[in-house]
Amino acid sequence: MGVLIDTCIWIDVEQGKLSPADIAAVTGKEPVFLSPITIAELKFGAECAATEAIRQQRLASLARIRIKPVLRMDATTGEIFGSLAAQLKMSGINPRPRIQDIWLASQAIQQGFSFLTRNLRDFKDIPGLIVLTV
């Protein structure tokens, strides 16, 4: 098993809203993983920072979490993504605004991992995803 952690959790840790102990209280002894999607979202946030000081702070946070193992995306991830997006569309939910979330969910499902987020609303309707919250 393992836990894939949503980008919002890493941002909350960076901003001091959550501590590593808060995360450990939920994940326990399960290994924690990063997604390339999370790395992209955090890099985007750093590059678009309002000031150079904020940019450097965000880049430093990104460098710190890069010690975690990063999941790979492959053809199976793509198939899971396509299936999830289609299921959402068929149930009347437009998947386009949620592309990043669906990719993250696809990776967690592919690996059989839980997914830790504070945005339960964004993930509760994704079939097959085991969602944890803080």
Order of helices and strands: EHHEHHHHEHE
Computed over alpha carbons, the radius of gyration is 15 Å
Beta-strand proportion: 5-15%
Largest sheet: 4 strands, parallel
Low-confidence stretches: none
Overall strand count: 4
- Coarse shape: globular
Helix content, binned percent:
55-70%
The number of distinct helices, counting runs of at least 4 residues, comes to 7
Instruction: Enumerate the strands of the largest sheet in spatial order, edge to edge or round the barrel.
Output: 2-1-3-4
Secondary structure class reads: alpha/beta
First-last Cα distance: 19 Å
State mean pLDDT (0 to 100 scale).
96
Per-chain topology:
Layout: E1 3-5, H1 7-14, H2 20-27, E2 32-33, H3 36-47, H4 52-65, H5 75-90, H6 99-111, E3 114-117, H7 120-123, E4 130-133
Parallel strand pairs: 1-2, 1-3, 3-4
How would you characterize the overall build of this protein?
- The structure is a single chain.
- The longest helix is centred in the middle third of the chain and has 16 residues, at 75-90.
- α3 (36-47) runs antiparallel to α4 (52-65) and α5 crosses α6.
- The model has no long low-confidence stretch (mean pLDDT 96).
- Helices cover 56% and strands 10% of the residues.
- The chain has helices at 7-14, 20-27, 36-47, 52-65, 75-90, 99-111, 120-123; strands at residues 3-5, 32-33, 114-117, 130-133.
